[in-house]
Amino acid sequence: MAELATIARPYAEAVFRLARQGNALPAWSDALNLIATVYEDPQMQAVMANPKVISADIERLLLAICGERIDGVARNLIQLLVHNRRLSVLVEIRELFEQLKLEDEGKVDAKISSAFPMEDAQRQHVVNLLSTRFKRNINATVTVDPDLIGGIKVEVGDKVWDASVRGRLQTMAVTLTK
Asked: Looking at the 3D structure of the chain, how many domains does it have?
């Protein structure tokens, strides 16, 4: 995955700069989401896996499916990715673009996993703590993971805080086996 991110980063940054200059961040977000969704479709993947289908056909197919829902610059992106054989990084480009967009808006994504459903007050308390820690607004996604046994696990970017019973048991097991 790190390799895909390395390849996708220059494309995502270029698209982000272009979108920001044109005050079109939401439009580009929608366009990248559409293009990546079309690319990920199982039928599209089957067509691209066919050795008889050439890159020009793939380009025409992608452009035809996206149609008028994307503008000329987004069409150019598709053509560039097809020409450079970089379609495989479309999903990563979309994800990196969204991260850059959130950073620009002063926000950061956080995944909060809890062993039990969280009440609104508990969720807000965790979000406030994270907001204070990162000095940004937190875009939180809360999921229930009974495998945690108790407590919570928080992921923000590449940082992970594991305050779950399962995490503590795993730490204890590693300590005891040394």
From this structure: 2
Q: Record the tokens describing residue 27, joined without a space.
A: 């439009």
Regions of the chain with pLDDT less than 70: 1-2
pLDDT of 4? 85
**Does residue 123 share a domain with residue 77?**
no
The pair of three-digit structure tokens given for residue 55, joined into one six-digit string: 């890159």
Q: Both 92 and 137 in a single domain? A: no
**Residues 32 and 67 both lie in one domain:** yes
What is the C-alpha separation between 83 and 77, in angstroms, rounded? 10
Q: Where are the alpha helices (DSSP H) in the chain?
A: 2-21, 25-40, 42-49, 55-66, 72-83, 90-104, 120-134, 165-177
Cβ partners under 8 Å of residue 106, min gap 6: 136, 137
Domain that holds residue 90: 2-102
pTM above 0.70, yes or no: yes
